Known about the structure:
Shape: globular
Order of helices and strands: EHHEEHEHEEEEEEEHHHHH
CATH architecture: 3-Layer(aba) Sandwich
Radius of gyration: 17 Å
Largest sheet: 9 strands, mixed
Number of strands: 11
Distance between the termini: 19 Å
Amino acid sequence: MKPVLIIRTGRAPDSIRGRHGDFPHWFRLGSRVLPEQLRVIDVAAGEALPAPRDVAGAMITGSAAMVTERAAWSERTAGWIRDAMDIALPLFGVCYGHQLMAHALDGRVDYLPGGREIGTQPIELLEHAVHDPLTAALPATFRAHTTHEQSVLEPPSRSVVLACSARDPHQLLRHGPCAISTQFHPEFNADIMRAYIRRKHADMRREGTDPQPALRAVAATPVARRLLHQFARQHGWLSTARRR
């Protein structure tokens, strides 16, 4: 069986990792792909990706890095994404992964106007989401966790925008029949979201934002948290036993 990759583009901060685990753990829980089917590739640490034809698909994590830095490892991963798109490999990018997919496919990434978006946000589905296989059954609005400074300012020319938030018009993009990405974090739970807000407490105050309302507004995000699992099921990443 070909492995499903978790393409690791960064690590959770030490204070969060020690209490809640790290990105691969969150993606495994969210997707419900069996551990023996997964392979973690730490591209930020220089690990090489296998050829797209040798894997069943990939999930691309978030990162504290910025896509606009154009780090060598990031640009190599962007090239791999283009190769994967050529063979319609199933891809699910999150946050940095979302931005990197857009950058790889001719979109534009830069700092979100108005500053960082952080906390549990209402996400609104757009017209094209009604007919999309991943989002057709979702409610018109749902909650999701966010924490980012950069965003997709211009989606790739062939991508379809499926959802937005009040601050970010490109929260959910469809890049092809097997490729999707989210600016929000479907892999986060409420405790992880609170931990990120507490960690960014000083930055938020310096930027003129009171973190307390964001902390109070953190809530469960059951619809967003199902997306990784639904994507995995649609693309055959789950064992027969796990599907039941």
